[in-house]
Design a protein that fits this description.
Quinone Oxidoreductase, Chain A, domain 1, Rossmann fold, 2 domains, six-stranded parallel β-sheet, 17 strands, binds nicotinamide-adenine-dinucleotide, binds zinc ion
Length: 360
């Protein structure tokens, strides 16, 4: 079938993207789903910094690639036998879990091995490419398009009461930020949770921490507007990186710069955990005092996909959302059309956006 999607042809286009237009919204052919795959009509897709990192070359991926990895939609067609049926809404997740490899037996700790290999190659989990013209899949999703073919193991179904916009955000911002809190941070009553970097991922981490009524939550960002929003959404205190002196037992770094991780480590209380979620350039390095880690009994943890098992954790976030404890809608800072995607990338690069959502 013919679809419309945002394809990245060349990496490292100059700013502003509204002028250089690194993403071209074009028509291309999408093949039918193979066995174990699904054709999904995309309803909503969020712009995440990890998309921008492909555009600006911080995270080099093979091109041409149809970007977008935070999305939700309705199944239109099922390839082969499936436990899912047309008409169901699904959340896309950006790392398929094969369920068979040694990493998939680690309860979310390690990223799936064939899933990571497929993501690196720009294919679906089976190794297939369903897009025409040599265009590759982004993280098994390619959600900046009217339709996508995805592996069954890249999606989690949700009930129809979960709106499409909420469902899309569950797939990356909430699973990553919220999962980092619940699976890696695991704050206990009376502790302080600090979030460094208040984009979509950091805000989702903050909302998840606030869903624990018995923790203190502090937010750190360079931008005053982000701190104001964090206060509106319930942060108990907010600081710029220069201002912050308060220590926290659980610190989530959601920026993607070495300096921010160094700051997050410095913010971590004795006995505490620093969870790093940001994805800096591959050659980025930090400076760290090993002695202070040892002498203060602190832990540094890397968390991909929120250390989550999506099929287990998405329903947990849906329950929190249903109970009114996780107002995921509040992460939406703007709604765009697919044709506005390049200027959306500018907004994201300037730090002005929390989550911009493309609605189809
Ligand atoms: N680990 C994963 O699985 C995973 C998943 C999704 C995103 N990510 C990564 O997480 C990071 C955050 O993603 P996002 O979409 O929320 O990004 P974003 O660009 O929306 O937000 C980043 C925020 O950090 C702030 N910031 C910049 N420098 C700072 C500093 N030195 N100290 C404090 N705050 C600072 C910015 O003002 C902005 O508000 C990115 O690196 C992204 O690639 C990782
Ligand atoms: Zn993302
Ligand atoms: Zn696996």
């Amino acid at each position: 079938m013919l679809i419309r999607g945002a394809v990245l042809e060349t990496i490292g286009a100059p700013r502003p993207y509204a002028a250089s237009r690194p993403l071209s919204v074009t028509e291309l052919e999408l093949d039918d789903p193979g066995d174990g795959e699904l054709l999904v009509r995309i309803e909503a897709a969020g712009l995440c910094h990890s998309d921008l990192s492909v555009v600006d070359g911080n995270r080099v991926r093979p091109v041409p690639m149809l970007l977008g990895h935070e999305a939700a939609g309705i199944i239109e067609k099922v390839g082969g036998a499936s436990d899912l049926t047309p008409g169901q809404r699904v959340v896309m997740t950006f790392l398929p879990r094969c369920g068979q490899c040694s990493a998939c037996a680690t309860d979310g700790l390690a990223p799936c091995i064939p899933g990571s290999a497929a993501n690196g190659a720009g294919t679906l989990l089976s190794g297939s490419v369903r897009l025409s013209g040599g265009v590759l899949h982004h993280l098994g999703v390619s959600g900046f398009a009217t339709h996508a073919v995805v592996d069954r193991r890249s999606v989690v179904p949700v009930d129809p009461d979960v709106p499409a916009v909420v469902a899309s955000l569950l797939g990356c911002a909430v699973l990553t930020g919220g999962g980092a809190v619940l699976n890696a941070g695991r704050p206990r009553a009376g502790q302080t949770v600090a979030i460094v970097g208040m984009g979509g991922v950091g805000m989702a981490a903050m909302l998840t921490a606030l869903a624990h009524a018995d923790v203190r939550v502090i937010a750190v960002d360079r931008l005053a507007d982000k701190l104001a929003l964090a206060r509106d959404l319930g942060a108990h205190a907010t600081y710029t990186p220069e201002e912050v002196t308060e220590k926290a037992e659980v610190v989530i770094e959601a920026v993607g710069h070495a300096a921010a991780l160094e700051g997050a480590i410095a913010l971590t209380a004795p006995g505490g955990r620093t969870i790093t979620v940001g994805l800096p350039a591959p050659d980025a390095r930090i400076s760290l005092s090993p002695l202070s880690l040892v002498a203060e009994g602190r832990t540094l943890i890397g968390s991909y996909l929120g250390s989550a098992v999506p099929a287990r954790d998405i329903p947990r976030f849906v329950e929190l959302w249903r109970a009114g404890k996780l107002p995921v809608e509040k992460l939406v800072s703007a709604t765009l059309t697919l044709d506005e995607i390049n200027s959306g990338m500018d907004e994201l690069a300037d730090g002005r956006a929390v989550r911009q959502i493309i609605e189809f």
